[in-house]
Amino acid sequence: MEIALEKMIKHKVERLPVVNDDTQLIGLITKQSIIERLFKYLKE
Q1: What's residue 3's pLDDT?
Q2: E strands along 1-44, which residues?
Q3: How far apart are CA 22 and CA 15, in angstroms?
Q4: Mean per-residue pLDDT for 8-29?
Q5: Cα separation of 41 and 15, whole Å?
Q6: Does the predicted TM-score (pTM) go above 0.70?
Q7: How far apart are CA 18 and CA 23, in angstroms?
């Protein structure tokens, strides 16, 4: 998760596609969702 966030910040990207082993799109991950999850983790 941290690697994805670092790359998103470096390349100024807000969303990344999530694909399965067949390279089919199965979802999106957003910079905001990563930040929220990290914040929640740090509060625990």
Answers
A1: 85
A2: 15-19, 25-30
A3: 20
A4: 94
A5: 21
A6: no
A7: 9
Domain boundaries, the chain: 2-43
* Residue indicated by tokens 């199965």: 26
Band of pLDDT at residue 27, cut at 50, 70 and 90: very high
Long-range contacts of 22-27 (CB under 8 A, 24+ apart): none
Helix intervals (H) in 1-44: 2-10, 31-43
| Residue whose tokens read 């914040």 | 39
Would you tell me how many other CB atoms lie within 10 Å of the CB of residue 41? 9
Structure tokens at 41: 């983790």
**Measured distance CA(31)–CA(7) in Å, rounded:** 10
